[in-house]
Specification:
570 residues, alpha+beta, Porin, 16-stranded antiparallel barrel, 4-stranded mixed beta sheet, 10 helices, coiled coil, signal, DUF3373, DUF3373 domain-containing protein
């Protein structure tokens, strides 16, 4: 632009010189030159502004907004109990032992002799004929303790990206960093399923000081001039309604937050029914996605594949969404669910003592070390289905309230890995290791393959209060309640995945329209083990604490989280 204007001015000066070259009126020439100098100065000013606007327009192709939150928790856990055992088919074990498959019990060099020498109680029970049928094989002495983490800080940074591609095409994305203060390891000790981060939950688990791509997708609206739209990419499937109220933000995701808070890659085909029915905000969506890739990048080689891709599909319907009333229906299923996901973890020393005794001996020399390992599922355990209905209303006096009901069904196929099958425990059978020197226990099948239905309820209210707003929430999950909400960033665990009761109270102080302080408290009363995972049979917490039931991973009886946070939107 600057070059073009300069050329125009130069040409004007050259022309003026030729026109007035023979004119004896020097004053006219001087006046004209003065006018041209004024025009040149004005054009320079315009040129600077044009260049600035061009740069601004180029940069504004992508709009960047975001939020920053720092949070302090005081976490307290009561009756944390570890009472590990596996279910063993001792009838099968006895038959193999009597046949001599494991060697002679009085031969200290035989696999059976080694096993009996290492576990005298097992030897006595075996010799007295007490080991019959499927029975628990206790792996360690039970322990129970209270755990207090008096202060636990986190920082979360989220950067929203938006770009208008064309009149009816847009792009949106979100990059997120979520970390503990003083911790960027990214790999946690596997003491619970929550500590094992994976593709769908990385954005909601503290990891390190790096940005993850939490969302990245495009929207193609009004296809062919119709109310049809298509969206493909890493989906906005976290912090959906009605969980936005406790977050003090607008609706964060498409599906019900009571059922889904889980990142996945997929596509949505939607239709704005409101254009036909006249009901404001009425939209029907068919959603498809993939939750697990079973072949590329896994741990299986040469086609010996034992897992399958997990595909998701279903409908999400906003029946009413008029800015005051919101009614939503959700129904979807997950086909070929595996007994875990690909990821990394720090292997617990306690489990090494049980399952890797040779390695455990070496670990004693480095007692403060954990070895890191990559894991993947061992097989397909069944299918899952979820459904729900939620209603929220925002009153004229700024009172907001909601109720939501959810249903889950797990259809197991009888398969099981080390930690169990679909809401069922694994039954282990004894066999020799590869060189025939040791008896090992390997999962053979699930102890129950029937369908299991769970349900959950979720309700809350938010009312205006001095300097801000006050809210109360309650949720309950039954024994087999298994929603996909593992990416919810509550440090004790997704409150909406809890098999038991959770109560929450909070007060939000509005500092300004883009900044607020939140004081909150959550109380968890767990009734059954395994909250948030479809793997393993839920056990009664009271029975685990009493020692009459078992759990491979530690279980929590009750817990509470008192926290304060400061959030800035920019």
């Amino acid at each position: 632009m600057r070059t073009l204007i300069s050329l125009l001015v130069a040409n004007a000066l050259a022309l003026s010189g030729s026109v007035y070259a023979g004119d004896t009126d020097d004053q006219k020439i001087a006046d004209l030159k003065k006018q041209l100098e004024d025009i040149t100065s004005e054009l320079d000013d315009i040129n600077d502004r044009v260049d600035s606007n061009e740069r601004h327009s180029a940069l504004d192709r992508i709009l960047i907004t975001g939020d920053f939150r720092t949070k302090a928790h005081s976490l307290h856990y009561q009756n944390v109990t570890w009472n590990p055992a596996i279910k063993v088919n001792f009838s099968d074990f006895g038959a193999k032992a009597m046949s001599g498959a494991f060697g002679m019990p009085n031969d200290p060099a035989s696999p059976l002799g080694k096993m009996m020498a290492a576990d005298p109680n097992l030897a006595a029970a075996f010799q007295s004929g007490q080991l019959q049928g499927i029975m628990p094989y206790v792996l360690a002495q039970p322990t129970t303790q209270d755990i207090d983490n008096d202060i636990f800080y986190t920082t979360r940074l989220r950067l929203n990206l938006k770009a208008k591609v064309w009149d009816n095409v847009s792009f949106a994305g979100r990059l997120s960093m979520f970390k503990n203060w003083g911790d960027s390891t990214g790999v946690q000790v596997f003491d619970s399923w929550r500590s094992f981060t994976m593709d769908g939950t990385n954005g909601g688990n503290p990891s390190g000081d790096w940005l993850r791509v939490e969302r990245a997708y495009f929207d193609w609206k009004n296809i062919g001039g119709s109310p049809l739209y298509l969206s493909i990419g890493r989906r906005p499937s976290t912090y959906g309604p009605p969980t936005q109220y406790r977050e003090n933000e607008k609706r964060g995701g498409t599906p019900s937050g009571h059922l889904v808070n889980f990142n996945f890659d997929g596509a949505t085909m939607g239709y704005h029914l409101g254009d036909i029915t006249g009901v404001e905000g009425q939209v029907i969506r068919f959603c498809y996605g993939q939750g697990f890739e079973s072949q590329y990048g896994n741990g299986e080689m040469f086609g010996d594949i034992v897992t399958k891709d997990t595909h998701l599909g279903g409908f999400n319907i906003d029946a009413i969404n008029d800015g005051k009333n919101f009614l939503q229906f959700t129904l979807f299923g997950a086909k070929d669910v595996n007994d875990g996901f690909k990821g990394t973890m720090a292997f617990p020393t306690q489990l090494a003592g049980i399952f890797a005794p040779t390695m455990y001996q070496d670990m004693q020399k480095f007692s403060n070390f954990n070895f890191e390992t990559r894991v993947q599922p061992s097989g397909v355990i069944g299918d899952m289905f979820l459904g729900g209905i939620g209603f929220a209303r925002e009153e004229d006096n700024d009172v907001k309230w909601f109720v939501s009901g959810g249903w889950t069904r797990a259809d197991g196929n009888g398969n099981a890995g080390m930690f169990g099958g679909m809401l069922s425990d694994a039954v282990f059978e004894a066999q020799l290791n590869a060189d025939g020197s040791e008896i090992i226990m390997m999962p053979s099948a699930a102890d129950d393959s029937g369908p299991k239905d769970g349900y959950g309820i979720y309700a809350g209210i938010q009312i205006p209060a001095p300097y801000g707003k006050f809210g109360l929430e309650y949720n309950y999950g039954s024994k087999y309640w298994t929603p996909f909400t593992q990416a919810q960033d509550d440090p004790i665990g997704s409150k909406l995945a809890t098999r038991g009761h959770v109560g929450e109270a909070y007060y939000m102080f509005d500092i300004n329209p883009r900044m607020f302080i939140k004081l909150a408290g959550l109380y968890y009363d767990f009734e059954y083990t395994g909250s948030g995972t479809p793997v393993g049979a839920p056990q009664d917490i009271d029975e685990v604490v009493a020692g009459s039931a078992y759990s491979m991973l530690p279980v929590v009886d009750t817990a509470f989280d008192i926290n304060a946070s400061l959030t800035v939107n920019f």
